[in-house]
Amino acid sequence: MTGISVGLNCPACGGSITVVEGEDTIACPYCSSTLFIEGDEGVTTVAFRNRTTKQKAVDASRRWWSSGWKARDLRRVGKVTEVYPIYLPFWRATTRIAGWICGYEIRRHTDSKGRVHQQKIPKEVMILNDYQFSEIAADPGDLGIRSLRNFSGETSFADFDMIPTFEATTSRDDAISHARNKALSSARSSARVPRVTMERLHILPRRLSMVYYPVWIVRYDYRDRKYLTTVDGVTGQIISGRAPGDPLFQSLAITAGSSVGGLLAAVGIILSDVAVEMMIAGIGAGVGVLYLTYRFFRHGSEIIDGDFRHKPASMSETVNELRDVARSLQGAYR
């Protein structure tokens, strides 16, 4: 289930009806009255029911403590100091992109005589997709949450007024603009046209909702330092968290990484008489291993999951940086 539904009463007969997000009209199943659905300036507001208990939130956090490269004694030494639920507001938008992207890609091949030939391959891609977008509509502090990951669950206003709720502080227009830009970027990326010569895309906003979502905040202490985790109130899964790293893992990483990186660079230098490409590959691999080792040693004192403002680059981002460096080295020796 990916849609959001809200239970209401028919104003004509009082019968219970269900309105699915995005519907403009609905017929009452009891009196057959045709009802027109209108939100606040085109924005539907719903809240998900909190399905996670305090104990489940603590248990999920403790399981997270035991995973990954965190301090080995965290589960034994860590002490939960505060657990409470809050509702966070999120903008949720559906945007349709329709149109065409035209261009070409260049393919290279080498003939039997070693000559390199280039060929332009025309590409014409039709785009007709709906793109989902979400972003937090308030500033709850540095909780490591910026977007809504789960879009399914039971909606209810029964417990909405019983726990703290952050008020929305960002505008509807900003949310629509961000959703449009994200949809355009996703459409262009999915087309996979390397060199674009013509683009004609139509942006069609379809739905905009304000979703109030339950999140549990679990704060804990570890050796006089304070950390936190956030737990999804619907699924019971960890959304974000900070945890202490283990000095032993850092020491092992710096030792093994330095040895492997130096060995790869030395092999590349030794093979420089055979082929320059092998030297470049060896040195590049050695530098890459040393760089990864340095990043782990530098940021290994704290393990971070989620969208925190001051979060170290992820492994995929680091690998992309190394790939760019390798391409630069290859270009310099051509």
Whole-angstrom Rg: 27 Å
Number of helices: 6
Give the overall form.
Answer: flat
Biggest β-sheet: count, sense, barrel? 7 strands, mixed
**pLDDT averaged over residues:** 79
Number of strands: 11
Secondary-structure element pattern, one letter each: EEEEEHHEEHEEEHHEH
Backbone structural class? alpha+beta
Identify low-pLDDT runs: 328-334
The domain tally reads 3
| Terminal-residue CA separation | 54 Å
DSSP strand content: 35-45%
Into which percent range does the helicity of residues fall? 25-40%
Question: Notable features of this structure?
Answer:
7-stranded mixed beta sheet; disordered C terminus; 334 residues; two-stranded antiparallel sheet
Care to describe what's here?
The protein is an alpha+beta fold. The protein has three domains: 5-38, no CATH class; 47-243, no CATH class; 248-332. It has helices at 54-65, 74-77, 172-191, 247-270, 276-299, 315-332, and strands spanning 5-9, 16-20, 25-27, 34-36, 44-47, 79-110, 116-136, 195-222, 225-232, 238-244, 302-305. Strands 5, 6, 7, 8, 9, 10 and 11 form a seven-stranded mixed β-sheet that branches. Helix 4 runs antiparallel to helix 5. The termini are far apart. 23% of the residues are buried.
Topology overview:
Layout: E1 5-9, E2 16-20, E3 25-27, E4 34-36, E5 44-47, H1 54-65, H2 74-77, E6 79-110, E7 116-136, H3 172-191, E8 195-222, E9 225-232, E10 238-244, H4 247-270, H5 276-299, E11 302-305, H6 315-332
Helix pairs in contact: 4-5, 5-6
In short:
This protein is of the alpha+beta class and 334 residues long. It is built from six helices and eleven strands.
